[in-house]
Design goal:
InterPro entries: YbaK/aa-tRNA-synt-asso_dom_sf (IPR036754), YbaK/aa-tRNA-synth-assoc-dom (IPR007214). This protein is α+β, with helices and mostly antiparallel strands. The chain is built from 4 helices and 11 strands.
């Protein structure tokens, strides 16, 4: 089992994508955000949980979705607990008011976010992208999220996710995945 040694994120910008490091500096609760270096091979949630014993309910995944309405693309980031699955076809689609929605292609998500696949985080995304947070995320004492790169993770109080830029909290946006 790999143990994680958390450090103040503001003192370790090398553990984050440049846009993430800049965004963390601007948070009113920046002193509550911690960073950790990890082996990029365990960046994906399942591998991180297996290697560290982290509770999947304390890990939150950020995925990028896109849809169109009247020829205009609407993009959003979703933050959901790792033991849940976002209801993109109903809840998210209606919230974004699009006819059809899907996960953004990996290459597009990486190039447009400026972050590495497996490390995408709601902190430091393009300002025009709304961040939709499942209300269950706020109930966790802390959550582990990406840092924008595969070689790092961030940890912050779950309730603070509601204070991230461009956030809308949505009740029941995600459902627990059957084990």
């Amino acid at each position: 089992m790999t143990s994680l040694v958390w450090k103040p994120a503001t003192a370790h910008p090398e553990l984050m994508a440049p846009s993430t490091a800049a965004a963390v500096e601007g948070l009113s609760f920046a002193d509550e955000v911690e960073a950790v270096a990890i082996d990029p091979a365990i960046s994906d949630t399942a591998a991180l949980v297996a290697a560290t014993g982290l509770d999947p309910a304390d890990s939150a995944n950020c995925v990028i979705v896109a849809g169109k309405r009247d020829g205009v693309e609407r993009v959003a980031a979703l933050l959901v607990l790792a033991n849940t699955r976002a209801d993109i076809n109903n809840v998210v689609r209606r919230h974004l008011d699009v006819r059809k929605i899907s996960f953004m292609a990996m290459d597009d998500a990486v190039s447009r976010s400026g972050m590495e696949y497996g490390g995408i985080t709601p902190i430091g995304l393009p300002q025009e992208w709304p961040v939709l947070v499942d209300a269950a995320v706020l109930q966790r004492s802390s959550i582990v999220i990406g840092s924008g790169i595969r070689a790092g993770k961030l940890r912050l109080p779950g309730a603070r996710a509601a204070e991230l830029p461009n956030v809308t909290v949505i009740d029941s946006m995600a459902r627990i995945v059957d084990a």
